[in-house]
Design brief:
eight-stranded antiparallel sheet, eight-stranded parallel beta barrel, 10% helix, mainly beta, 10 helices
Length: 998
């Protein structure tokens, strides 16, 4: 970033500070490129020839296994101002076995893309083959673990596997692209498609691979622009012909990059402001690593910009802090800096993170993938979403922001302030982003700006920037029939109603504000509410309004040669109450999902958190209002609105049952020497594809080699007792905070856990376990080893890291002073029932591992547990191994309410328990998470409606694994209401088997 610094502190008061100065990082003369209805040049994307600022966020439908709730999330995004949504698609989620693909139910991509189009959102599709996303294997299918070909290269075997997936997913995307499908389909709203993600190697093998992916997408009928997301702005895979030194050119049409600047929360849950917002465009250093400057002929494109951060096993729980760290104010400063730098396509990661249910998570994350996103895992609209709504409102109200270019410096009175000044080449409209200098400062500064604007040279009245913050200001803008000369307030909404205009301006509470409007003659100003002073400069035709931001002020302006104008002016809290839908502005509810005009009636839908007033500005023809289908009695309000005579009702409380009537059964029969393992697979020396080295000459013991890719796996090894059987040494892979339990002849003799508390966890381990004297007695002995696989690694560096070993790598019974592997062991293995031929295709790949109870269907709601013993919680003791607990309960959430209910363990106010145990949580057969009491931090688990029956019977099944030590047993388990609103959408139960298929 180029800045003009003053040379001496003594001169600060005398010499004004200069604004940001742009560099020639973009080629504004580059011709536009056309892809059907989508085109672009160096300034912006265009749809049907109209420039558009893409304001997007990421959603993972696979992390919300209740498809009716997909619409809920997308409606909240649209209502909060997003015009686009980005979707990752997880190859492994759809493919349990090579050649098998499933796009039904919770995997219905057609339905997802249709909903997005119905809700008015453009779509960016990101289908891999590799996606990362903190998913096990980065989204690769389990069966790919056994392919010896190097992934993410042009190896023919890997390309054949990738093409198998792409031949399935690409045609679905093609049917939903904005250009229409290749077979004459009407199409949908997909405008951009990503062909690979964060490919950090750039050898010729990767170059040919990228060319293949590009050609494959085109052959499959995808006609919109194609891109790759560059990990960290390396200048990799820029379009051919970019001609920037030290970049790597390739086949994509657009260059996109990701970035997560701004620091992270401390382990103590404190926010940090470690770095200023980077200039990755017009005002940056340029070159290959300068962000958008790596591709000067295409618009700036941040395919992932930090909207939060993921959290790891053993942390103190960081999502609420992350929501603040990359939340209110951060968004103004960082996203605004992007916009000023010509980043015309921004997608925030995440918008809604959801739940890494079952065995979806990579080792670096636990069950919750809340991410601190704008919309929480519980589907709450966070405070940060309210700020995003305000920022998006400016983008929507001033379409001239799309395609702006640097306009030249302005004069600033304070060196502590910097201003980015951009303009529209077509209309000369201006955007001024005001931040501290540097932007991560948090001082309290007063300043003025003097600038040559479209309507003349103006010195803005004194403004204030207090704390870490930024102001998004516009000038020289046409708002319907109005002319905004400038405002020191920020614009959130403009709607044209019946030939007049309504505009909403806001600012920080108790700060002064000024708005200047242009007229041909003196207009009539009527202050309806609030303290607003007006003056008119006849020479310029300027109407000036001065005020203090606070409770909502209402001003009516008429005459002066322009249509009537209603100005609504308030502080941020007041602005957050407003929702804009088309030509209707609504004030009051916690969420307004939709507004539809039918004759004289406005039909509004949405949510309330409490009893809430309702006020509506809309066409005069619409004098009747309904809310969620119910008629609302209204009266005339001030300033042209209509107002509900009574507050909209809030939600009733949700009464939750106490979880009782528990039944329990032991679940580790595999440890018993007499257990029948006749149907298990024998360990042999089949092909070995892992990157993990094993001792020479040993068999392939890895779970993946035998078709077991998720969750727990059991090994049983038989050996003959000998005096040399002194110890067991194992080497194993188990992911983040993974576990190995070792039994000899039915008794636990040792347990090893991989460490928690590491953002990048250790994922393999070695343990040495002393064998008891029994192992040295004559006769056959049985070792039973359970390995919990908490996810395969990602492949972030394209080094086949996802192929690190899971399960046992080696196991040696030996004499301490003797040779390893000298005592023969005959091993067998068993994991998920059916392996890659999953027995529950509805719940699918992530749902089950190889616990005995899972193989027997104990997790399913239809299982008959009446023969199990009764139990009470909290338990004081547990047998070594795994025990199963089950109970059922009824819910009766009031109709017309949307509640998020969770399952909570022990004391949820602390991140960890004083006792050691683990729980796999099954609700109505769905594996909704893993609780590790002594590792944490997650203690409460979101169960979405559709998985949870809100108005009927539910079954909770818990697989509790313990070392059997005193106290290491299941604590109190309870239901909690995590969120409750009146409104929501109808949600059907996700139909799934109640018992194992015969």
């Amino acid at each position: 970033m180029l800045r003009h610094f003053l040379l001496a502190a003594s001169a600060l008061a005398a010499i004004p500070a200069a604004a940001q100065t742009a560099k020639p990082t973009a080629n504004f003369g580059a011709p536009a490129k056309q892809f059907g209805r989508v085109s672009y040049d160096a300034r912006s994307l265009m749809i049907d020839g109209k420039r558009l600022t893409i304001w997007s966020a990421e959603v993972h439908a696979f992390r919300l296994p209740s498809p009716d709730l997909w619409r809920d999330v997308l409606q909240k995004m649209k209502a909060s101002g997003f015009n686009t949504v980005a979707f990752y698609f997880d190859w492994g989620f759809h493919s349990p076995k090579r050649g098998q693909y499933d796009f039904n139910g919770i995997r219905d991509i057609d339905r997802l893309l249709t909903i997005a189009a119905e809700e008015g959102l453009y779509v960016i599709t990101r289908a891999g083959p590799y996606v990362n996303a903190e998913l096990t294997r980065g989204g690769f299918p389990g069966w790919l673990q056994n392919q010896r070909a190097r992934a993410r290269t042009d190896d023919p075997d890997y390309l054949a596997a990738a093409d198998e997936w792409l031949s399935q997913i690409n045609p679905i995307i093609a049917r939903h692209q904005i250009n229409g499908g290749p077979k004459g389909e009407k199409g949908g709203t997909v405008i951009l498609h990503q062909i690979e993600n964060e490919l950090a190697l750039t050898t010729p093998a990767q170059g040919r691979y990228m060319d293949h992916l590009y050609a494959k997408a085109r052959a499959d009928g995808i006609t919109v622009p194609l891109f790759h997301n560059d990990q960290g702005r390396n200048g990799y895979w820029v379009p051919r012909g970019s001609n920037v030194a030290k970049t790597v050119e390739g086949s994509p049409d657009l260059y996109a990059f990701d970035g997560y600047p701004g620091g992270t929360c401390t382990v103590g849950g404190k926010t940090t402001r470690g770095s200023a917002a980077p200039d990755w465009g017009f005002y940056g250093p340029g070159g290959a690593r300068g962000g958008a400057s790596a591709s000067p002929n295409t618009p700036g494109f941040a395919a992932e910009f930090g909207g939060g951060w993921f959290d790891y096993w053993g942390s103190n729980g960081g999502y609420e802090c992350n929501a603040i760290q990359r939340g209110k104010r951060f968004q103004r400063v960082f996203y605004g800096t992007n916009l000023a730098n010509g980043i015309a396509i921004q997608s925030f990661y995440m918008g809604f993170g959801g739940t890494s249910w079952g065995w979806l998570p990579a080792p670096v994350v636990f069950t919750s993938y809340d991410y601190g996103a704008a919309f929480s895992e519980t589907r709450e609209v966070r405070e940060k979403a309210e700020e995003l709504k305000a920022l998006a409102g400016l983008i929507r109200s001033v379409p001239d922001l799309a395609g702006m270019v640097p306009a030249g410096p302005v004069t600033i009175s304070s060196p502590n302030i910097q201003v980015y000044h951009n303009k529209s080449p077509e209309t000369d409209a201006r955007f001024l982003l005001v931040t501290h200098n540097p932007s991560n400062k948090a001082s309290d500064d007063r300043f003025t700006i003097t600038a040559d604007l479209p309507d003349g040279r103006y010195a803005f009245p004194e403004m204030r920037l207090n704390g870490f913050d930024a102001k998004w200001l516009v000038a020289g803008v046409n708002l319907g029939g109005q002319r905004l000369v400038y405002a020191t307030s920020e614009l959130q909404s403009h709607v044209a109603i019946d030939g007049g205009d309504v505009a909403l301006l806001y600012g920080r509470a108790q700060e002064t504000g000024t708005t200047v409007l242009r007229y041909t003659s003196a207009p009539t100003v009527r202050v309806i509410d609030g303290d607003v002073r007006s003056s008119f400069d006849a020479a310029k035709g300027d109407l000036r309004l001065d005020y203090i931001h606070g409770t909502l002020a209402r001003v009516a302006v008429s005459g002066g040669g322009r249509p009537s104008l209603t100005l609504l002016i308030g502080d941020e809290g007041e602005a957050a109450k407003f929702w804009e839908h088309g030509d209707v502005l609504v004030r009051g509810p916690a969420l307004v999902r939709s507004v539809r005009a039918t004759g004289a009636t406005l039909a509004l839908t949405g949510d309330t958190r409490e009893a809430t007033p309702l006020e509506v500005w809309g066409p005069k023809r619409a004098r009747a209002v309904t809310w969620n289908g119910q008629r609302v009695a209204t009266t005339a309000g001030t300033a042209g609105s209509i107002v509900a005579r009574a507050a909209l009702a809030g939600p009733a409380g949700v009464t939750l049952p106490v979880l009782a009537d528990w039944r329990m059964a032991p679940g580790t029969p595999e440890a018993e020497p007499g257990f029948d393992d006749g149907a298990w697979q024998a360990i042999d020396s089949r092909a070995y594809a892992s990157i993990t080295a094993r001792p020479d000459g040993q068999p392939n013991m890895l779970m993946d080699a035998y078709g077991f890719h998720e969750g727990d796996v059991w090994y049983r090894g038989r050996f003959t007792g000998t005096a040399d059987a002194e110890r067991l040494r194992i080497y194993y892979g188990a992911g983040g905070s993974g576990l190995a339990q070792v039994f000899l002849d039915g008794k636990l003799i040792g347990q090893d856990e991989l460490p928690g508390g590491l953002p990048r966890p250790v994922t393999t381990g070695a343990a040495t376990i002393a064998l008891p004297a029994q192992a040295r007695t004559p006769g056959e002995h049985v070792l039973s080893i359970m390995v919990r696989n908490n996810g395969h690694n990602w492949d972030l560096d394209a080094d086949d890291f996802h192929k690190e070993a899971r399960g046992l790598v080696s196991a040696s019974v030996e004499k301490q002073a003797g040779a390893s592997f000298a005592i023969p062991i005959a091993w067998k293995i068993q994991g998920r029932q059916g392996g890659e031929d999953i027995v529950d295709p509805v719940r699918g790949v992530p749902n089950n591992g190889g616990q005995y109870g899972e193989r027997m269907g104990w997790h399913l709601p239809g299982f008959d547990d009446t023969r199990w013993v009764k139990a009470t919680l909290p338990a004081s003791a547990a047998p070594a191994g795994t025990s199963w607990y089950r109970t059922s309960f009824d819910l009766n959430v009031p109709k017309g309410q949307d509640a998020t209910i969770g399952v909570s363990f022990g004391d949820a106010s602390v991140p960890r328990s004083p006792v050691d145990y683990r729980v796999l949580i099954f609700v109505n057969g769905w594996h909704m998470g893993q609780f590790i009491a002594h590792v944490g931090p997650q203690r409460t688990f979101v169960i979405p409606e559709g998985i949870l029956n809100h108005r009927g019977r539910n079954v909770l099944s818990l697989a509790v694994t313990s070392d059997g030590q005193q106290g290491n047993a299941l604590e109190t388990v309870k239901l909690v209401t995590m969120r409750n609103v009146r409104g929501g959408l109808p949600v059907r139960m996700v139909e799934a088997p109640a018992v194992l298929a015969k």
